[in-house]
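From the pipeline queue, job 12 of 40. The input is one protein chain; the requested action is below.

Action: predict structure.
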Amino acid sequence: MIYLKKAVRTAETDQKDVHNVVARMLAEIASGGEEAARRFARDLDKWTGDIIVPPEARAAAAAQVPEQLKRDIQFAHANVRRFAEAQRATVRDCEVEILPGLIAGQRQIPVSAAGCYVPGGRYSHVASAIMTITTAKVAGVPHVTACSPPRPGVGIPPAIVYAMDLCGADVILSMGGVQGVAAMANGLFGLPRADMLVGPGNQYVAEAKRILFGRVGIDMFAGPTDSMVVADGRADSEMVAADLVGQAEHGYNSPVWLVTSDRALAERVMARVPELIATLPDANRQSATAAWADYAEVILCADAEEMAEVADRFAPEHLHVQAEAPDWWLGRLRSYGSLFLGEETTVAFGDKTSGPNHVLPTSGAARYTGGLSVHKFVKTVTWQRATREGSRPLAEATARISRLEGMEGHARSADIRLAKYFPDQAFNLT
């Protein structure tokens, strides 16, 4: 493995300590309630209008969205819903007779309330509204609140409001940042307290979710988005370069990696990426330029197996394979948030419209977790029942194990059942 380009900064070394700021804000909102949340909305969002978006504002927002864009949002929503429904079908109740007279099972119970954060700062993240709200609704969550930062004097962009409404948000909050997250977690403005908080956001939103985790569930601890392209000599260097640039525009600290077994391809891509970045609009160009200069890496490997080893080690959020034998890669790769096979797909499809969720593990977390899915909103709980005869071997073994562990109270709760159900029998319970 040879680095043809090495990152000078990483998400870990560049992470700023925002804990104290976020912890203070959360404490103020927890004690000050709606008044404190409104104060932060006024100071940070520059918003003094309605916090809860009323029905007439939803209708007005829909009227402002061009028909073609509505159809595109409906298309993406249908794809995400279809994929989430397929996932939901894999999560089932079950029961099994473990031994004669002992039946146990599991139930799938959706959480009661979810809060979906939809970013709205530099970009209008319509897709994030689709990914989070749709998935919660398909999971069966009875109440879904969505919040997004309002723009001064405007409110939440109409396309985001339209997407939130289409996907089934029960309440929409014109509130962003830590205050939006805290409002959902604390059940402000007449909302039920959120059991789950999901959705991407900046470092302050991510830290707020991290601090609140435990009181509420969260989708994952999120860092800057990252993407890897794995390519062999057959790959189209222009497509590879375009795919890397497309992900680098997310932000100045969004890592992109090229892992390849072909030096000539790597050199063509490294030459082409700056040229493509130069053609982007100003804000996008600035982000992509910084990401490519400081965080991007190009790694030359000996063969497909070594490329796969590198990919698994990095555990990227997005992994795009542009190499022969896609089925081999599908079976071989083990650590990624979402996998894209072949040049006919691209991470941008997954980000916006194709169906699998785009809320994914970052910063190597794909080593131990997957992305947002209906499973995140559903609790798998267990139950059991037994006949008196079925309880006999359980009570005997439980009593002996408990006494071995020194837990006499446990043992006696087994003893009492044996004494009641089988009064004429003697048992060895030590």
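Job complete. The mean pLDDT is 95.
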